[in-house]
Amino acid sequence: MNLGRTAKLVAQAFDAALVEAGGTLPVWLTLLSVKSNGLANQRELAGMIGIQGATLTHHLNAMEGQGLLTRRRDPVNRRVHLVELTEAGEALFETLRQAALIFDKRLRTGLPDERLAEFAQVLAILRDNVGA
């Protein structure tokens, strides 16, 4: 229960930080995934972000309408759409990246590196236990 409540509070606070910076979590995750992997197709993006293809299409439509990214057909496989950031998308990515870094620094305040490393190990064990 404690883990769930804490995760929910942290997620809400991170969402609020992104909104204050002019974005949302889905926009941030999409921009981050495209930026990290260069030109990506929609199916790959959905997998990286962890959402269904239809949900991603909804987000991509909105982001394309805002001028943050472009989609075009893959010349090798016309059924695949390739996604690429525009200049506006690159600018928003940088703004949201700064907001994420500031949030991360605030979140880690008072936690020494060795405690953070131990916490990461505990989280990994919890994930493994759930998967077992």
Q: Radius of gyration from the CA trace?
A: 17 Å
How far is it from the N-terminal to the C-terminal residue, by CA?
A: 20 Å
Structural class, judged by helices and strands? mainly alpha
Please bin the fraction of helical residues: over 70%
Record field, number of beta strands: 3
Strand fraction: 5-15%
| Total of helices | 6
Summed over residues and divided by their number, the pLDDT gives a mean of 92
> Which shape, going by the Cα principal axes?
globular
Please trace the helix and strand order, writing H or E for each element.
HHEHHEEHH
> Strand order within the widest sheet?
1-3-2
**Low-pLDDT ranges:** none
Summarize the main sheet. 3 strands, antiparallel
Describe the structure.
The chain has helices at 2-20, 25-37, 42-49, 53-65, 87-108, 113-131, and strands at residues 40-41, 69-73, 81-85. The longest helix has 22 residues, at 87-108. The protein has a three-stranded antiparallel β-sheet. Helix 2 packs across helix 5 (87-108). The chain has 132 residues and is mainly alpha-helical. The two termini are 20 Å apart. Strand 2 and strand 3 (81-85) form a beta hairpin.
